[in-house]
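Example record

The entry below shows one chain as it appears in the dataset: sequence first, then structure tokens.
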Amino acid sequence: MKLYHSSDVSVATPDILHSRNYLDFGKGFYMTSIYEQAVKYAQRFLRRQKEAWLSTYEFKFEPLEWKIKKFDCYDKDWLNFIANCRAGKDNSDFDIVIGGIANDKVIQTLDRYFEGELSENETLGLLKYERPNIQYCIRSQRMIDECLKYIESKQL
């Protein structure tokens, strides 16, 4: 499957080291299978007067060989996982986490939840109508090295 990564630089050799801490699914290399989503995300760099690059990869893996966490919707499990990752309290050892991205509308709801303005049930009630975009977060360098093949980078 093709996956896309947006950045302010071309990323021919992805790694875990350059990831920020406290992201949705923890420290890792983030991509999406939705081209339009990747382009939209890359445009944030242009708005900041930076270069915008879209790197493309081929991703192939055998599910039984890896520790995988997959979220099919915005639910309690997803919410708690993101809360733990953003607080630096995630101790899981998944090689990859797949699930909904926290887009602008979802981020606003999550911020209200993290600030204590919304309860868990209120938050999930607001999120149940959101159609998740998909993000792939590879959290092990071994999986990047063995399963991700760089194709190209294009400047937008």
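Notes for this example: The mean pLDDT is 90. The helical segments are 35-47, 76-86, 104-114, 120-127, 141-147.
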